[in-house]
Structures are given as C-alpha cells and as structure tokens.
Amino acid sequence: MPGTEALGVDYADLDQVEASAKDILHPAVYDFFAGGAGDESALAANLASWRTIRLRPRVLRPAAHPDTSVTVLGSTLAAPIVIAPMGYQRLAHPDGERATAVAAARVGAAMTLSTYATTRLEDVRAAAPDGVQWFQTYILQDRGLTADLLQRAAASGFTAVLLTVDATVPGDRRRDRRHGYALPHADGIDLPNLGGVGLDAAYSSRLEADLGPDVIGWVREVSGLPVAVKGVLHPDDARVCVDAGAAGVVVSNHGGRQLDAAMASADALADVVNAVGDRADVLVDGGVRRGADVVRALALGARAVLVGRPVLWALAHDGEEGVTAMLTALIDGIGECLRMCGAPSATALGADVLARVR
Description:
The termini are far apart. Helix 2 (14-24) runs antiparallel to helix 13 (309-340) and helix 12 (291-299) packs across helix 13. The protein has a single domain (4-184, 192-347), classed as TIM Barrel, CATH 3.20.20. It contains 13 helices and twelve strands. Helix 6 (121-127) links the parallel strand 5 and strand 6 (132-137). With 358 residues, the protein is of the alpha/beta class.
C-alpha cells in the first residue's frame, strides 16, 4: 500500500481527507454524502458525543502487541471495523463499491453493501471473494423485489443482513433540497440492484412505511442469514428486536440524516448494551473518526463499529488505495490506543477505562 505521502494526504487526519474530497466532488454529491437532517444538530452530536467520553488508561499491564480481532455476526474480523452501508459510491469514484470491498478485505474489515449501491451485488462479491461482506436492506413496498435481493445476496456469499428500520419516512435533508433533490447524471451509473432505476430512487416512495417486529423473522427466513437491525436508539426497542430473532442491533441515528432532534449514537450505546446483554451482538454507527473512538465504543460494550463518511472521502480521493490507507490508519490508531490503555485485546476492554466528562 502506498504511504500517505504518495497519496497526497494524511489519512489519519480525516478533516484533511474530507476537505480534499470536497474539492473533487460535484457540490450536489458532496452535500448528499455529507449532509444531515434539519439544522444538522444530530450530525454534529454524533461527532461531539464521543469527545465527552474520556479514557482512563491502565498501567503496568502487558499490552505491547494487542489483538484487534473480533467475532461479530458469526464472522471473524482482523479489526472491529465494519464499513457502513452507503449508496451511490460510483459518484465518489468510478470503481465505487468494488474498490471499497477490496480495501475492506485487504485490512480484514467487513463491508456492508447498500441496497442503493451503484454496482451489482454479485460484482461486489466477486471483487473481494475472500472478504467479509454483509448486505443492507430496506423493506421495499415491493416485497418480492426485497426477497429477491436477499436471496441473491445469500447465494452470492454475503454472510449477514443489516435491516435498516429508521428511514421509513424521509428526513428533512436541506442540503439536498437546495439541489432540487437531484444528483448529477453520470453515464452508465444507475442502481442496478433495483432493476437499473435512476439515481433519484432514494427520493421516491419505494420503502414500506409501516413495519413491525415480524419483519425481522421474515428477513431471516427469506435470506437464511443472521439479521442485525440498524437504527436502534431505545433499549426497549433493542429487546423487541432480539425477542423477534435479531442476531444483532446497530445503535444508529442514520448518520444524523433522519430526525435532527435524535440523540447521538454514543449516548444511546450503553443502555442498549445493558438491555441486550449477551443475547445479541451490539454495534454502533455514527461519528467514529479515530482509533480512540473505536476503543470508547468497545469499552461501552459494542462488538464493533460502523464507519461511514470517511470511507467516501478516502474513496473520492484515491479509490481503493485511499480507502485502504484510511482504514489502515484507523486500525493503527486502535492498536495504539489499546496499548496505552493497557488492554491486550479489543475484547479485553471494560468500563474501568472510561470516564465521562460533561
């Protein structure tokens, strides 16, 4: 992998990577990727809330070579990193989701493919056949199409499903509204997993609005794969998901893109972990930007974290090599933080290394 000097940015400095990507991307694409709902207070809170959790390092504990590996949703990862489901990646770079999948496999992270991907799911799987890949689904109004997507994903070698449940109605995305809810047309780029529909499909009413817990069992039965429910902030909802058969829950406010008044994922995590116990894997999504954030999440009880926008910025800047460099820098940061906290592994962290500051 090229060093950061060869790639032109310091991939440990994600503010710099985002600034570089902003210069590269069409303004409507940048705003679509970067924007949140309303005044974007939930988006800002996702970032700020991790900073309110301070680490209390332990000393005189051998941790010179910490093990960053974890097992989550039945798959072993070299690091507790899952690439969040994000659509439209070929608008960031021509190689799009293929490049992201290859980069994830190179570093031993999992990659989640969005329903709104701009690459066929079979082609993404073929690009990195040895990598861990999960498929993200919404429940479409066309249940037959939803079932077909799930069965194709399972047949292609995806090993888990992330069922997104917090976007049954559209958020107030003001940046997108300023651009007329339109993305720039690009030759040969559409949403092939939705039958080749145009890029405006995200703004249509294709999603089923009324969902109940029974949908979890339906997704599991149709796909034959473990299901993690994404978009959980309330501990009672987490219990309902697990009671309905979920193998995991993802604590998430949809990257601040849905309800602007929603609490930050970091602030919801501990209550969800306590509600679920050891009955399911808990993951968290939103605002993770450095290795210390990952360690904070693990100490609060998460099994792994999802990383979203930084992947898009790295992809826009340097394609596969950029995503690989960004993930490598993040994983290096996890190892460094584990060493400084006296933790021999990613699974050896507990609340004793945490201190909240308000």
